[in-house]
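W.,

You were right to be curious about this one. When I first looked at the sequence I had no strong expectations either way, so I just let the prediction run and decided to look at it fresh. Below is the sequence, 278 residues in total, followed by the output.
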Amino acid sequence: MTDPLIRIAEALERLAPAPMPAPDFAAEAFVWHTAPDRLEPVSRVSRVDIGLLIGVDRSRDTLLANTRQFAAGLPANNALLWGARGMGKSSLVKAVHAQVRAEGLDLKIVELSREDLPSVQRLLAHLRAAPHRFLMFCDDLSFSHDDQHYKSLKAVLDGGIEGRPENVLFYATSNRRHLMPRDMIENERSTAINPSEAVEEKVSLSDRFGLWLGFHPCSQDDYLDMIRGYCAAHGVPFDDESLRAEAVEWQATRGARSGRVAWQFFCDLAARKGVRLI
């Protein structure tokens, strides 16, 4: 019969697994997972070429310059990319990372999900000790009225006794400028004992991003140029007059016009033309 003390020890080990071994940073991209903690390497990053991102020139140039500075060991700001859905916020982050690496700078990207924010200090401990520079990326970041995850992020952005590691920069995307719904902010103002303090605690998170880059719905010309750019990049033949009519009808049925809608139309067009996308 197994010794009860041995069984208890084994049960405790399952409840509290051994610390994660030092990661192998051979890859250029990673996804952070918990339970147990691990950095999963990504063999092929899903992204588009930076030249195919239309209508976001100012945000592209600003984010690219900031990322180059960081990768070169110079001061740089955490960035919040906010605004209209489907306008290439996350695509821009991944495209900028690829461009900086193509220029010969050693920069790795680590994706962190919003649900795993409470574990961010454990992730930073691994990144801090590594001889590389990291772009930590959180896509679709937002918080609800009872969500306390934002407190985990404050120390990463600008605070804590250790501060943000010198070799880590944080980029996030969100549909909300202040990361929280407007009705939540207004509710805080109307119900709190000290309304200004209650709002400040939550809104101050977005203030800790040094760069705020806004994304807005694109014009019809930009929408059509996006599709033409995809066709040229992937060798999909098209008649411009037909493409224009079909693309306008497509976005009308979607009730929206954005980079995402342009890509969805292009995928349909490529399939009808018998062109495989690699």
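Here's what jumped out at me. The longest strand covers residues 168-174. And, maybe more interesting for your project: The radius of gyration is 22 Å.

Coffee later to discuss?

I.
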